[in-house]
Amino acid sequence: MEASSIERHSSLRSLFKSANNQRHKLNSIPDSSSSVYQDNLRAAIAAFRECQQLTEKLAIFSSNESEDDIASGDLQFLLINHFLGELIKADSITTRKTVLQQARVAYERYLKLLDNYDMLSKVDSNLYQRYLSERDDFSLLSTSDPTARRNTKISRYKREQELKLKLEYLARAPLALQNDDAASREIYLAEIQLCTHNTFHALDMINQELKIISLMPLTSPAREAEEQAEDYRRRNGVPNNSYSDRLDPPISQLLSRGKAGPLLSKDGKPLRPFTLLDSRQRLQDGVFKQDHALPTMTMDEYLEEERKRGGIVDGGGKSGGGPQQLDEDDMEKADSETMKAREWDEYVEANPKGSGNTLNRG
User: Fold this and answer.
1) What value, to the nearest 5°, has the Cα angle with vertex 73 and ends 114 and 1?
2) DSSP secondary structure of 34-72
3) What pLDDT score was predicted for residue 233?
4) For 326, left (φ over 0), alpha (ψ -120 to 50), or beta?
């Protein structure tokens, strides 16, 4: 290897280490939507893209080689595209659809590179072939059987935990073992297996999110509101750095437009149009008034209104509610009333109280 190539190789190692440190630094920033997080995120993405370009210039990976031909120290560079996919996916400034598509491209490059070196396990190789055949509809849970979907989730969770434990165990190895070429190679291979496992999960989630975005309207309401606000600021001459979500503009802004400020000058001259109101007299009249609503009419007026609306019925006789008086001279009417009373008495004697209750008797 030439001297210049060795220097570039050493530069790639230091650049990759710096990019990795920037990636780990993001974990210490709690708010992923903050400007600090996004600035560090863009710096990390730029560092890994520079690593990718330098890797291509040095031709570290070739389609004519196998896994054994890769130096142990160069195995870590296989993860560049995977880390790029993870970082790009966390971008909250660029349009979400563009972010997901760029992240998917990075993940695809990572899997293609591993497939060229036959470094995918049998399970991962089958998943990769299925992904190539159904790229936009790829899903880890391809079946609709709930039992099979549950078993797939459990098996993938167990596999992920096994890979994490293995990687943690190898990372806790003594320093002498870490400096060993075979040990460091095993650590890198374990990390590649875990990242490959997470890559398929990320591709599954990306496809699900892209399907949801495809069902959304082309222009979101939030985007329309932002464009309207931008148009308002441009028409009113308000700079972007002074924009806020306040409904009432600040005093300084109102003063600059001549819509507020002192009503009269020091000499007593009006500085802007105004309207005289009787609010002072109304407030003065209401100082000693009752704190409750007073009646607006007397009882007689209220009854008269009710009578007009038909709420009060006058008179008696047949239209009244009292009992009718029988005519003592009407014998037929008296006999019919008597027979009706006798029939009722006979019915009551024949049907004593409770005789019909045959279901709830004790």
Assistant:
1) 105
2) SHHHHHHHHHHHHHHHHHHHHHHHHT---TT--GGGS-G
3) 64
4) beta
Are 163 and 170 within 8 A, CB to CB?
A: no
Write the CA distances from 174 to 40, 73, 160, 169, integer angstroms: 32, 18, 24, 10
| C-alpha–C-alpha distance, residues 61 and 116, integer Å | 10
Amino acid in the structure at residue 84: L
Is residue 177 classed exposed, middle or buried when 0-12, 13-18 and 19+ CB atoms within 10 A define those classes?
middle
Of 328, 331, 350, residue with least CA distance to 339: 331
Q: How far is CA 342 from CA 223, 345, 346, 347, 349, in A?
A: 88, 5, 6, 9, 11
Q: Provide DSSP, 190-239.
A: HHHHHHHHHHHHHHHHHHHHHHHHHTS-SS-HHHHHHHHHHHHHHHTT--
How many Å apart are CA 322 and CA 161, to the nearest integer?
90
Q: Is 15 helix (H, G, I), strand (E, B) or coil?
A: helix
176: pLDDT strictly greater than 50: no
DSSP structural state of residue 135: S
- Between the two ends of the chain, the Cα-to-Cα distance in Å is 107
Contact between 143 and 149 (Cβ < 8 Å):
yes
Between CA 301 and CA 227 the distance in angstroms is: 61
293's enclosing H/E stretch is: none
Nearest Cα to Cα of residue 26 among 42, 13, 12, 15:
42
Q: How far apart are CA 362 and CA 358, in angstroms?
A: 10
CB 184 within 8 A of CB 73: yes
Mean pLDDT of the chain: 80
- What is the reported pTM? 0.57
Q: Is 244 helix (H, G, I), strand (E, B) or coil?
A: coil
Q: What average pLDDT does range 319-336 have in this prediction?
A: 71
Q: Tens digits of per-residue pLDDT, 112-140?
A: 999 998 999 888 899 899 999 988 888 88
pLDDT of 42 reads: 92
